[in-house]
Design brief:
There is one protein chain. The protein has 318 residues and is an alpha+beta fold. It is 45% helix and 16% strand. It has ten helices and ten strands. Strand 2 and strand 3 form a beta hairpin.
Length: 318
């Protein structure tokens, strides 16, 4: 990732904080995104998240789950505890409180688009399946109360942001939501998921070992959704092959499913709802466009994307 414009005051504050709160003597801190910093020390490289995206209790629940996954061999980043042995610390930056998490640098890279083939998707399926299997016992421990159910998020409130005159889209959204909510919520089908496994949130090393990063959108959802998102991401953003995209879709989907089933149960009955989950994901992205784009100053590219999504949602439903 490219670094954004450096904010020296924030970086200096962060370096001082890491020295005191984590006993990490980092020499540099460079912004990777608006809330993530890459910090280097003599001991190695760390990624530090500085955000108020969620409350302290919500972030703590996310981090406790991630730490549990790491301890049980799931490919997630290691969370570095503070000198107080805490997963999460408070930091005041420019008069505003932020929550700080320090991650150990995970092995691997963001794969070039051309390398997202069936073999990598097979490995990804195994990693997702392992995550879901390990999480079943964790849910039973009763420590996940602050991780909400997917439909509680305002980003799934399709009726609030999508323009009222798009009546066909609203009808489709109501029908899709009703169908998803009617699916069986059993231990093998519903639980804790990453929720945002698009391909930029996956690192792959030379031995095809995968690390899933950025668990900020974790939620309670149908486990199948964690399989739908990387398929959707590959087709939407990553496919660069010269052959048939439909054949590519079949090959990566089958590999993902086969890999997943090596680690976790996935019934044929539940798998039949994969197209429904892809519809839900597409509606979700369409809603985000309306939530976060300025309708009064849309660029030509944004108008093009809105029209494309609207047409695809209507055609996919038909």
């Amino acid at each position: 990732m490219a670094c954004r414009r450096r904010d020296l005051h924030v970086e200096e504050t962060l370096l001082s904080f890491l020295s005191i709160a984590y006993a990490l003597e980092c020499q540099t801190a460079k912004a990777v995104t608006n809330e993530m910093y890459c910090c280097t020390s003599a001991k190695g490289e760390y990624f530090v998240r500085v955000t108020n995206y969620k409350t302290y209790k919500e972030q703590k629940a996310e981090l406790e789950w991630t730490a549990h996954l790491f301890e049980h061999g799931v490919g997630v980043p290691e969370i570095i505890r503070s000198v107080k042995h805490s997963l999460l610390e408070r930091l005041t930056v420019e008069g505003k409180e932020r929550l700080v998490v320090v991650f150990g640098a995970a092995p691997g890279i963001h794969l070039p688009r051309s390398r997202w083939d069936a073999s990598v998707f097979g490995a990804l399926g195994r990693q997702i399946g392992r995550m879901h299997r390990v999480s079943q016992g964790y849910i039973a421990s009763g420590t996940t109360g602050q991780i909400g159910h997917w439909h509680e998020s305002p980003e799934y409130d399709f009726g609030s942001a999508i323009p009222a005159e798009e009546t066909r889209i609203h009808d489709i959204a109501i029908e899709v939501m009703a169908k998803v909510k009617a699916l069986p919520q059993e231990e093998s089908t519903y639980g804790l998921i990453h929720g945002d496994l698009w391909l930029e949130n996956i690192l792959v090393d030379d031995s095809s070992r995968l690390t899933m990063i950025d668990f900020q959108d974790c939620e309670r959802h149908y486990l199948l959704y964690d399989l739908a998102v990387p398929i959707y991401s590959a087709l939407e953003y990553s496919y660069t092959g010269s052959g048939s995209i439909l054949e590519y879709e079949r090959s990566i989907t089958q590999a993902l499913i086969d890999g997943y089933r090596e680690e976790h149960e996935l019934s044929a009955e539940m798998l039949a709802h994969l197209p429904l989950m892809l519809q839900l994901k597409q509606l979700f992205d369409y809603n985000l466009m309306h939530l976060y784009w300025d309708a009064e100053s849309l660029s030509e590219e944004q108008v093009r994307l809105l029209n494309l999504y609207r047409m695809r949602i209507e055609r996919m439903h038909a």
